[in-house]
Structures are given as structure tokens and as C-alpha cells.
Amino acid sequence: MPVAAALTWGGTFGSGETVTIRITATYNDGTTVSITRSATATGTTSLNPADLSSLYANGKYITQLSVAPSSSAASTSVTTSATMYSLEI
Q1: CA–CA separation, 75 vs 57, rounded Å?
Q2: What does the buried/exposed string (b/e) look like for 65-83 if buried means 16 or more CB atoms within 10 Å of the residue's CB?
Q3: How is the chain split into domains, by residue range?
Q4: DSSP string spanning 48-82?
Q5: Between 86 and 15, where is the model more confident?
Q6: When comparing pLDDT for 56 and 14, which is higher?
Q7: Nearest to 31 by CA among 76, 3, 63, 2
Q8: Looking at residues 69-74, what average pLDDT do you find?
Q9: At a CB cut-off of 8 Å and minimum separation 6, what does 15 contact?
Q10: Residues near 35 by Cβ (< 8 Å), separated by ≥ 6?
């Protein structure tokens, strides 16, 4: 269970470029929920507890977490990372 998460954008943004990171949780019944954050400059943002709690649903368990970056530009030199920390294994 992730209890903290940090999203990082690095590299060089193009003029007017927006880069988005989407974290998607897939549940045991096949349904999904996502958290999306965007940036127009390098930096790191932490997801707050309310963001992370939105990934959990009563009576369901997460079978997969996926991270997908996307850019508003046709090509990009921006790098992204998502780091999730857990107290449980």
C-alpha cells in the first residue's frame, strides 16, 4: 500500500510544453482509478494523503499500479519519475 509518493519532472521543457504523469490503479474486478498531475517546468511534487486515499476502494484490492507520462509536444526531452513508498509489503 503506497503511503507517500513523489512525482518528478526533469530535463528541458519546450516553449509552452506541458508534461503529464498519470498513475493508474487497477483493481481485482478490472476497474481502474487514476491520479493525474501536470507540469510546465522541472521540479518535484508530492501527492497528499487525500490523493493517495483516492486509489483505494472498499472491498477491492489493487492488482496493478501503472505510471504513464505524456507530453503536449510532438517530441520531448523531459524526463519523469514516480516514486512510491510503502510501509507494508
Answers
A1: 36
A2: eeeebebeeeebebebebe
A3: 2-86
A4: PHHHHHTT--TT--EEEEEEEEEESSSS-EEEEEE
A5: 15
A6: 14
A7: 63
A8: 96
A9: none
A10: 22, 23, 47, 51, 52, 54, 55
Q: Strand, coil or helix: what is 9?
A: strand
User: d(Cα 24, Cα 18) in Å, to the nearest integer?
Assistant: 19
Under 8 Å between Cβ of 75 and 13 = no
Contact 22, 67 (CB under 8 A): yes
The 10s digit of each residue's pLDDT in 4-31 is: 889 999 999 999 999 999 999 999 999 9
Q: Is the pLDDT of residue 2 over 60?
A: no
Contacts with 16 (C-beta within 8 Å, 6 or more apart), sequence order: 40, 72
